[in-house]
Amino acid sequence: MVKRKALGSGLEALLSDKPSTNAKKAKPNTQRTENNSGQEILRIPIENISRNPHQPRKKFSEEGLISLGNSIKENGMLMPVIVRHVDQGYELVAGERRWRAMQYIKEESIDAIVIDSSEKNSALLALVENVQREQLNVIEEAEGLQNLHSGFGMSHAEIAQLSGKSRSHITNILRLNTLSEFVKSKLLENLIEMGHARAVLSLSEKDQEKLIIQAIKKQLSVRQVEGLVKKHSTNKHIFKNSKKDQDTILIERELSDVLGTDIQISESRQGKGKMIIKYNSLDQLQGIINKIKN
């Protein structure tokens, strides 16, 4: 018997809450039942449910959805989707694959549990459901975490506590957002592993692309790519950490953790210097600015 992975204390509490008071205002054509835990299940028309705008998953396998739909048709839907009440009807919190699969088999309504959930918690639940079912690509996870960090102002520690992941895991995944779009696309296509991507993080976008193209063409291992990066960095003098004192390196790491992006500090012999803050989008930049202001 496979045990369900822990969701984190915050999410467990959220999912075990009583059904939303808004559920009592459901439209007349919704049917009501209860599951074994006493939670009220509504049968809601699929057209009344919209997708979660913070859903981290970008790609849904058509073959997988058809297979899931056929399984639901044969055995029934074992787990209702989770929705929250919005002005236009209902919005998915968790269960988009089931919602899509029901549309594939031409079902007009779906079993759902309505919960009171803020937009922030809805985004967090959507991310954790995908990550903990091991169905989410690492880049989709990184972008979802960035949304929580920059969009909702959550710290690495807060995300870790609520998601059941370690803080180091959160920090390491967030750093993948600084990769070039080309490298991200290859990760999404599963042409490289996360280790390949992490190996080239410190390189410029142009050099990242060169090494990843070579890695794909020659089917290089992660260790081989790490070796190429080390050789490239030595020849081009890209890495300057050896010239930095430990205090500067520590400050870089601390600022990177706080702001959720790569920070580079350079200092002259006269004590002057500059700090470079990297960002990949205007939304991420705005999130960084908000954190600095706070």
Question: Could you characterize the architecture of this molecule?
Answer:
This protein is of the alpha/beta class and 294 residues long. The protein folds into 3 domains: 9-119, Conserved hypothetical protein from pyrococcus furiosus pfu- 392566-001, ParB domain (Alpha-Beta Complex); 180-227, no CATH class; 241-293, no CATH class. Helix content is 49%, strand content 14%. The strands form 2 sheets. The chain has a 6-stranded mixed beta sheet. Strands 7-8 form a two-stranded antiparallel ribbon. Helix 5 (138-151) crosses helix 13 (282-293) and helix 6 (156-163) packs across helix 7. The longest helix is centred in the last third of the chain and has 15 residues, at 222-236. It is globular and about 70 Å long.
If you compute it from the alpha carbons, what radius of gyration comes out, rounded to the nearest whole angstrom?
23 Å
Biggest sheet features? 6 strands, mixed
Provide the residue-averaged pLDDT. Answer: 78
- DSSP helix count? 13
Query: Residue share in helices?
Result: 40-55%
What is the first-to-last residue Cα distance?
47 Å
Number of strands: 8
CATH T-level topology of the largest domain: Conserved hypothetical protein from pyrococcus furiosus pfu- 392566-001, ParB domain
The run of helices and strands is HEEEHEEHEHHHHHHHHHEEH
Shape verdict: globular
Low-confidence stretches: 1-11, 237-242
CATH C-level class of the largest domain: Alpha Beta
Structural domain tally: 3
Content of β-strand:
5-15%
| Strand order, largest beta sheet | 1-2-6-4-5-3
Question: What structural category arises from helix and sheet content?
Answer: alpha/beta
CATH superfamily of the largest domain: Conserved hypothetical protein from pyrococcus furiosus pfu- 392566-001, ParB domain
CATH architecture of the largest domain: Alpha-Beta Complex
